[in-house]
Amino acid sequence: MTTIADRLELAQQRITTAAKNSARNPDEIQLLAVSKTKPVSDILAAYQAGQRRFGENYVQEGQQKVEALLQQCPDIEWHFIGPLQSNKSRIVADYFDWMHTLERAKIADRLNAQRPSDKAPLNVCIQVNISGEASKSGVVDKDSMLALAAHIATLPKLKLRGLMAIPSHSDDKQLAKELDTMQQLFNTLQLGYESVDTLSMGMSQDLELAVAHGSTMVRIGSAIFGERDYSANAN
Ligand SMILES: *Cc1c(COP(=O)(O)O)cnc(C)c1O
Questions:
Q1: Is residue 49 included in any domain, yes or no?
Q2: Which of 2, 48, 79, 158 could form a disulfide with 55 if both were Cys (CB 3.0 to 4.6 A apart)?
Q3: Residue 202: domain span
Q4: Does the beta carbon of 203 lie inside 6 Å of ligand 1?
Q5: pTM of the predicted protein model
Q6: Separation of 100 CA from ligand 1 center, angstroms?
Q7: Would 155 be classed as within a structural domain?
């Protein structure tokens, strides 16, 4: 039976191979372990294998896990990667180090106001709705990306780190096109902001193609923790 530690190592090897195939330095690509719906014991197993970055999608579930692991694993970096309703922004401001799914100035304002002053600025990525599907979140074009970036830059408790996308997985050609557009948007954003260093894209299915298109942070869930069971999840 493969363990979480084994699968973590396999994911790392996939990143290294993908980086080499694109003539990139593997150290430029960070692995975010996506632990949504998974128990604290799974996070602990990955932690003991050396993993320090974890991603959660649900506010309350994330808060519970941060609290459960605070003493034992104080050096975990927690990333919020799910959709955020404005009435729950305080939990993200209080408990997380990163927020990948920022898409509105109003939420940015709330996070900035709610971020505790004894904490480092919240690292944020702007989510881009790269597939253009109505069901997906995110800014829809370059102008709205730049407008939101300019707004974030005025907020002292937020630090703009980059862009995040969840591409459509209809077919490989469409996927490559979307990833390519993301890379161009990322290059544009980097020209304007020194703090921008993160292109958050790539999941278990498509990490190789994402790395080929400049991803600097891949978000890997099922390839590390196994398939998810949503039936027990209420939030
Ligand atoms: C669940 C999730 C992931 C991980 O997906 P896998 O296919 O399990 O690797 C990555 N990013 C986001 C935003 C997610 O919601």
A1: yes
A2: 79
A3: 4-225
A4: yes
A5: 0.96
A6: 12
A7: yes
